[in-house]
Amino acid sequence: MQEKITIVATITAHAGARDKVAQALKTVERDVQGEPGCEQYQLHVNSKNDHQFVMIERWQSAQMLAQHEQAAPFKALVSAIDGLADLQVTALTAVA
């Protein structure tokens, strides 16, 4: 059985770039929902800092996550926010 992967991606928009970054994130959230192996892909915003977004992702396996990282929606997001935001990604697995 393959181990499920949870991703917490924190995206902090630079000053003046919040709306562009938010739109790109909303687009990728919509487009990724149907990707194989995607169990959750949900966008949140920090209630105390509206320039900081958090994407909570859940994937059936590391292989499915790797496929997502090569898919058009993710590549479009990376291109759209390049130079407009800082990205920090944390990969998690459940404690047995």
Summarize the structure.
This protein has 96 residues and is α+β, with helices and mostly antiparallel strands.
Can you put this structure into words, describing what you see?
- The chain is α+β, with helices and mostly antiparallel strands.
- It has one domain (5-92): Alpha-Beta Plaits, CATH 3.30.70.100.
- 35% of the residues lie in helices and 39% in strands.
- It contains 3 helices and 4 strands; from the N terminus they run E-H-E-E-H-H-E.
- It has helices spanning 18-32, 62-70, 72-81; strands spanning 5-13, 38-46, 49-59, 85-92.
- The protein has a 4-stranded antiparallel sheet.
- The radius of gyration is 13 Å and the shape is globular.
- It starts with a strand and ends with a strand.
- The mean pLDDT is 96.
Number of individual domains: 1
- CATH class category label: Alpha Beta
Share of residues in helices: 25-40%
Query: Structural class from helices and strands?
Result: alpha+beta
Low-confidence stretches: none
Query: Architecture, CATH level 2?
Result: 2-Layer Sandwich
Mean pLDDT: 96
Question: What is the overall silhouette?
Answer: globular
The strand order across the widest sheet is 2-3-1-4
- The total strand number stands at 4
Specify the oligomeric state: single chain
N-C termini distance = 13 Å
Q: Specify Rg, calculated over alpha carbons.
A: 13 Å
Strand composition percent: 35-45%
Query: Topology as H/E string?
Result: EHEEHHE
Largest sheet, in brief, is: 4 strands, antiparallel
